[in-house]
What does this fold into?
Amino acid sequence: MATSSCSRVECVGIVSDSFYFEALETTTDVFMDSFNINTRSCRAYWVRSKDNKFLLIDHEQQFRAQNLTSQQLCQPECKFKIQVYTDFEDVHGDKKTPAMLYVKNDDKIMVACCRGETEVYPEQMEALPTRIESNKHKALFFMSELTAAHTYEFESSEYPSWFLGFQRDRENPSKNELVLLHKCEDEVDESCQVILCN
It folds into this structure.
């Protein structure tokens, strides 16, 4: 919670039409965010790169983007869900939505997580966290809509100025890897742009 020069209070009672509060002591300002899962906001999308490759979790349990047929797009490992979280403090103030990106594969929840400043890997979770008590989490991204229709950027909460992006796979140039890419706030980098399709 960010106090922003406000005092923390606790409601101690209600009498008739009056509320009574007691000021809580704080020794320092608190600048911790917390995020709650938004149970009404979880949608499924195909995730597409600017060069029309679709994201999937492959047989090696890695995130890859590649050209897919309409029949392949019907497979569950191609349909990603974006779970939105509510940021009660909204300290970002720039319309960035806290979110997690995941896919269900063989009835397992595989969540996109960051490790280091460039690696994105799928981590199996029994369930998504319902509350995140920190402003940083390996699976939490700040999603912002760009001016182009259905185009978004996903900035890592763990590594500010590092965004989900697509990079050509060194072993198979016809595919792209999902990675974190560094970019400045106002810089335009199409490899960090993600298109969400229903």
